[in-house]
Amino acid sequence: MLTRFSYAYGSTLYVQIWNDRLRILDGKTGNTFDESPLVAWHADKPWRKRFAGFGDDVKTLDESHLIKNPFDHPRSLIADIETGAILLRCAMTSLIQRNFFTSRIQVILHPMECVEGGLTSVEQKAFKTMAHDAGVSDVFLYWGEPLEAHQLNVDGLSTPHLQHG
After folding, report:
1. 102: number of CA atoms within 13 Å, CB side?
2. Dist. CA 34–CA 21, nearest whole Å
C-alpha cells in the first residue's frame, strides 16, 4: 500500500537499452529521452574526470574530450557500470524534476540486445547495480516484447520476464 502511494507521487521509468541507443519513457507524463548512449569527459587532466556532457550533444565535441559508450561491448550489452550509472542519472534528470514528492523512482530496465538465452546472473547484477548507483529506488529487470506506456504497471507484467532487484 505504501509503495503504491509513493509511486503515485514518484515516477515509473521504462528504460530500453541498445548498443547504440538509450530510450527512457516516463510512464506518468509520456516524456521520452531517446538519444545515443554517450558520455563525455574533458581530457585535459587524465587523472581527474570532469564531466562534459551526454547523449547526442557529445557527438559534436572535439578531440580534447574523451567520449565513451557504456553499452558498447562485443559479448554483453553492458561494458562500464560506472559510466552507465552516470548516463542513466543524467538522462533521468533531463526527464523528471526531482522534489519531495518525486523522491522515489521505479525503473523497468529492458535490455534490447544480447539477451539470447536470457541474461547471466553477472549481467543481471551489473544492470541492477548501475540503476541503484544512478539513484533508483526500485529496479525491475525485464526481457520480452517492448512495452507500451499503458503497460508500465509492474503488477501486470508476466513474471518469467521480470526480476525485481
Report:
1. 13
2. 7
Q: What is the mean pLDDT of residues 16-43?
A: 90
Task: Return the closest-CA partner of residue 110 out of 159, 77, 70.
Answer: 77
The contacts found for 112-116 with CB under 8 angstroms, 24 or more apart, are: 112/16, 112/17, 112/18, 112/146, 113/17, 113/18, 113/19, 113/77, 114/19, 114/75, 114/76, 114/77, 115/77, 115/143
**Degrees, nearest 5: CA angle 33-38-40:** 125
| DSSP secondary structure letters along 6-38 | HHHHSEEEEEEE-SS-EEEEETTT--EEEE---
State residue 51's pLDDT score: 86
Distance from chain centroid for Cα 27: 14
CA distance 144 to 142: 7
Percent of all residues in the chain with a pLDDT value above 90, rounded to a whole number? 35
- pTM for this prediction: 0.82
Mean pLDDT of the chain: 81
Return d(Cα 152, Cα 140) in angstroms, integer.
Answer: 11
Outline where 19-164 has alpha helix (H).
81-95, 121-133
- Mean pLDDT to the nearest integer, 109-115: 89
**Grid coordinates standing for 71?**
553499452
